[in-house]
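User: Run a structure prediction on this.
Assistant: Running it now.
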Amino acid sequence: MEISNFRKINKDRLAKFLEHLENKHLDKDEIFGKCLMILKTLLYTSSNFIPNSTLSTQSNIQELLYSIDFDAIDDDHMIKLKSILDQGADLDIYARYIESILNKNNKSLNSILMTVWTQLGSNVLQLPIIIHEKAIEVNPLIFEKTILSAISLWEINNLIDVCSKSPLVFQKCSSIFNELLIKLNFTNKFMEFLNYFVNTVSVRCKNNDIDIVNIYPNKCRSILTLRDIKNKNSTLVTEHHLNDEVKKLALAYPKESICLLSHFPDLFIPY
């Protein structure tokens, strides 16, 4: 039967039918298993979903995918659902799928999350900012993979665009770059990369009417504010005063101070 011949789904009847099929214990049959999975997915779609006979089968499949309530799906079916999504999901549908996995925050879904994230490749940088922020909070390793891939594939400009819109993403990137900087023993090449990164983020922030000071951690903002004031009027903030604040930061928060000094070399205190 063509998809266009389906009518509005009666979920109660469908649920009873599925229960009947599952009691047949035919789950070892691969084709039966796939059909059962598709039918079960219909339970999680909008009750108002009706296939449109004027659209192609592929378009109807995509409309079906858009109507899925991912948050209502159990973990086991979320894993199986990927094979259906691969038949016609676009980036928006994958974004909803990924966000739902992150919201569930279940370790059993980590593998499928990594699979989908890897499958999207550089397109993950086109996902909504909220997904990147949730990934950092729930599964930081997956976002670290994104950062390292962006560097190796030179997708850095797309990464910079995300950083300029989210303090959390920017700070996570800065933290990882800080670790790389130390491991690479402060090589000139990586310092040049950092300079490009910070300058470009600064430009993007200005274009979006965002003060770059506000995307840094709170403990760093006072120094950056004093630096701005000093650069505009050295009589209000002396170099001695600014140096004292940098020293305090270095003693209290060594990692943050290294990050700040690598981003703004003019803050470095010569001995």
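The radius of gyration is 25 Å.
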